[in-house]
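User: Quick sanity check before I run a bigger batch. Here is a single chain. Can you write out its predicted 3D structure?
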Amino acid sequence: MSLYLLFSEVRKHATVALSGEAADELFGGYLWFTDQNAINANTFPWIQLAAHRGLQPGKLFNQQVVETLKLTEHEQSLYEEARAEVPVLAGERAE
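Assistant: Done. Predicted structure follows.
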């Protein structure tokens, strides 16, 4: 919504404006595009990077809450669901 309002105002003075939105995705600006531990992890790469830096759910929440909610299992389930939704193109391996 904020970009819509911003560009509504910009439109009054310019035909084209570039915001840089999604530039990280297009140009590999996130750490997990180059960090081998994140690339090879069997989880979301940002979770691997956070864990590598000591930022784990178990440290953010009471351990009993983590165990009760089964956060690790939930993360893994979400990762597997996301991977299953990614189409495999001809000639690619489903890894």
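Residues 49 and 94 are 23 Å apart (CA to CA).

User: Great, the batch can go ahead then.
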